[in-house]
Amino acid sequence: MATQSLAPTLLLAAPRLADPNFERRVVLLGKHEEEGALGWVLNGPPIDAVGDLLQAADLVPAGVRVPSTEPFRQPARVGGPVTPESGWLIYRSGGPSFDGEIEVGDDLVVCSNAAALESVVRGREPREFRLVLGYAGWGAGQLEAELREGVWLPATLDPSVIFDTAPEAMWDVAFQQMTGGMGGAFNGKTWGLA
Fold first, then answer.
1. What is the CATH number of the domain that holds 78?
2. pLDDT digit string (tens) for 133-169?
3. What does R_g of the chain's alpha carbons equal in angstroms?
């Protein structure tokens, strides 16, 4: 039986997940196929400001000055426990295309191509982005089993949650959108009516 893809969507870690890598985390699910699934934690622990991190990693070409725009001042975040040294840009579609882009719905793109990184460092498109290091991955059938166990709550993919919501509030905002703002307040361990 073929796997029905959940992607693109947001996955909210339910309290019963009990994995410190994902406690109150929001995952952008980009791929979901029979072979497995791929996503990026949007509100993982902060690392350094994107501009500082890129300079410290020597990823800024000689003679180029890192822009001082908001995306460069925000912290890069841990995007998941798999391959933590890999960098992923998350941005709105509609700009230039880069090899290896993963289209996530109609409005978002995720890319780990060095050309995309160079474009943003040079102040070109995409100008609005988030940078995460690492990703979340599931083997064949693993995500489906976790969904049956109730450890993930699928929520509507809304780009404003990614770009306009403070990381500390993402889980609550996405949960309120999922429930229509009518209930299910999370108080740490149990669900109740708000």
1. 3.40.1740.10
2. 999 999 999 999 999 999 999 999 999 999 999 999 9
3. 17
Span 10-22, pLDDT tens digits = 999 998 777 777 8
Tokens at 19, concatenated: 């994995």
Q: How many domains does the chain have?
A: 1
Per the structure, the complete domain to which residue 47 belongs is given by 9-192
Is residue 32 classed exposed, middle or buried when 0-12, 13-18 and 19+ CB atoms within 10 A define those classes? buried
Tell me how far apart the alpha carbons of residues 121 and 3 are, in angstroms, rounded to a whole number.
Answer: 39
DSSP string, 142-175: HHHHHHHTT-EEEE---HHHHHSS-GGGHHHHHH
Local structure of residue 32 (DSSP, 8 states)? E
Q: Please name the residues in contact with 79: beta carbons below 8 A apart, sequence gap of 6 or more.
A: 40, 41, 42, 44, 88, 132, 133, 134, 135, 136
pTM recorded for the entire structure: 0.89
Instruction: Copy the structure tokens of residue 155.
Output: 């929520």
Residue range 48-69, pLDDT digits in tens: 999 999 999 999 888 899 999 9
